[in-house]
Design a protein that fits this description.
SH3 type barrels; Alpha-Beta Plaits; about 20% helix; alpha+beta; elongated; 2 domains; five-stranded antiparallel sheet
Length: about 170
Amino acid sequence: MSEFCSSSWLVLRTKSRHEGVVERALQLKQITSYLPTQRLMRQRQGRKREVELPLFPGYVFVRPRDDQYEGMRYIRGSCGLILSSNSTPATIPEQDLEAVRVLVNRCSSVSVDDGLVEGQRVRVIDGPLAGIEGELVQIKQQHLLVLNVELINRSVRVEVDRDLIAAL
């Protein structure tokens, strides 16, 4: 396993919303870890507040020493390392993770695109338009998409919240 430790980071999968718990446990075990986070404004019950959320939900990046692999198996909220196609731990090069660090530290608004690209076929999964399929025409803002939906042989442009869309 030592070939993974020197220049690359490994990806540790976590249970939903357990990223912080797993990172704190890794730090207590003195395992090098990194959890990139972003600050977002959330509104709940009429109050706005700033929250810190993981940039990559469900993942923590780790760089364990050879003698620390066994200790990673028994961390509450951890689901194990992500494996590549040949059943070895998937790695992320140091320079890629450093680029993420720079973005998180220097940019006030960072978001991870969930794979939606203009021209892609998508389906509305919730709300009043649930079940309608269309072509993603434009990404207007971080959370707003413009869809081209064909209804009765006419194209209709509809603005839809990004959270309500799933790629086909």
